[in-house]
Specification:
three-stranded antiparallel beta sheet, single chain, 25% helix
Length: 110
């Protein structure tokens, strides 16, 4: 997501499909500020959790529509973002965005 072309593609996809939740992996971003988050999303009420990249690998972003999902807990780590909350209509959910290197030894640990 560090390139302008990728950001535009993701933003257009989000705006056309209007999801309640989106999980992005391999962002390769060291930081993501509120301005960048709001440019990606289609509504003004977006919430986000970010796990920064390490060098040129990794990086996670989880975005959700704050009007349809109320987050009660967000846990971030280098390799995952866990969001626990309730969708409108009282549907409790736990959603996890996971990233790991594509190495057999690392996958076995998971």
């Amino acid at each position: 997501m560090s390139s302008v072309v990728k950001k535009r593609f993701v933003s257009n996809l989000i705006k056309s499909k209007r999801p309640d939740f989106i999980l992005i992996q391999e962002t390769k971003l060291m930081q993501l500020d509120n301005y960048q988050i709001n440019r990606l999303w289609y509504e003004s009420e977006v919430q986000a959790a970010v796990a920064e990249a390490e060098g040129m690998s990794g990086g996670l972003v989880t975005l959700w529509n704050a009007q349809t999902f109320k987050a009660e807990e967000v846990i971030t780590s280098r390799r995952y973002i866990l969001v626990r909350g309730v969708f409108v209509g009282n549907f409790p959910r736990i959603i996890v965005n996971v990233y790991t290197l594509n190495e057999t030894s690392v996958r076995r640990l998971l």
